[in-house]
Amino acid sequence: MSYLPPPHRHGPIREVLDALSRARRVILTTHINADGDGAGSEVAVGAWLRAQGKDLWIINPTPYPDAFRFILPDPEWCLDPGSQKAQEIARTADLAVILDTGEIPRIGRVMTLIRDLPKIVVDHHPPGPDPIPGISYRDPEAAATGELLFDLLASSRRAWPSGVALGLYVAILTDTGSFRFSNASPRAHRVVAELLELGVDPEGTHRRVYGDYPLRRFRLLRACLDELEVDSQGDLAWMTVPSHAFESLSATTDDLDGLVDYPREIQGVEVGILFRETAKGGTKVSFRSNGDVDVNALARQFGGGGHMKAAGAMVERPLQEVRQEVLEATRNAIRSRPGKGGGG
Asked: How far apart are CA 309 and CA 285, in angstroms?
């Protein structure tokens, strides 16, 4: 491999590799409603550790996403955190590795299982107010957690078993929006070039990730587009997922992936938002920014977080109430910037 990790990652990489080398039974987890970065990162690390004879288990707060099961070598790796086996594994594990998040609320009920275990956090999100303690390998400059793991695994000098390169590729592919977002840095492209040289099939992988959707997703999109709204000034747009359509189509959270891009892609729009009412009466909010509006800061106002241009929040209050508050906060964020007629 010709690519070299940036110098500021060398110290954390050594610390993480040392902790992994001593561990015998390891739990991997990621954030609620895992995306391609979280799921792909779990597969990459999991395959790498299993190849070394480690006892490795994936215990996520929500099920491993169906959309990425094609990269999962063995579904038996995954355990429900409420199961008896997960409880047993947690009692006998000697290390937990948290991927693609660094905040306690984002791993939900898994935190209770791993509370007393030594922890490693590998994440590329900006630090939040409720960090998970442990060894920290974090860098917001990374395009994806998959990029950080590439540096980690390449630095180990150990052979990569089948599945590692594909998991890392899916992680970077999805978190860069198929390499179209601003985080698709020169470094990320260098990493991806290495993964392609290891045999990843870009066309086939893109097809599995983005071109293999069930029909219900398109019917759900049709219903969502009927709910598309644009603010009077044309710089804010949002969609609301109709609960009746979501339920009648037997849709899953996987079917919502990417829908927030539709309001964001309207000409003149600076921030696009997707609202969804949860089964328990709460509200899931997804934010996307086209310009310099920091939606990470917006999401944090509602107990969430993410990146400057992509973030989300789960608010345990009714949709109608939350939607009005979010829209008003977003209007203020858009229009309070210098040159937008507000303060600053």
From this structure: 14
User: What tokens appear for 157 in the block?
Assistant: 């000098």
**For 272-321, how does the pLDDT look when each residue is reduced to its tens digit (9 = 90+)?**
999 999 999 999 999 999 989 999 999 999 999 888 999 999 999 999 99
Residue entry with tokens 């293999």: 212
DSSP string covering 155-209, please? HTTPPPPTTHHHHHHHHHHHHTTTTTSTT--HHHHHHHHHHHHTT--HHHHHHHH
Amino acid of residue 179: F
Residue ranges of alpha helices (H) inside 53-136 are 84-92, 110-114
Task: Give the max Cα distance, the chain.
Answer: 61
Return the sign of the alpha-carbon dihedral for residues 111, 172, 306, 256: negative
Q: Which of 38, 77, 65, 308 is nearest to 171 (CA)?
A: 38
Residue 326: in which H helix or E strand, if any?
helix 319-335
Q: What is the pLDDT of residues 261-281, one digit of tens each?
A: 999 999 999 999 999 999 999
Decide if 305 contacts 128 (C-beta within 8 A): yes
Q: Which tokens belong to 261?
A: 């891009």
Coil, strand or helix at 221: helix
If you search the block for the tokens 């045999």, which residue do you land on? 199
Half-sphere exposure of 307 (CA within 13 A, CB side): 22
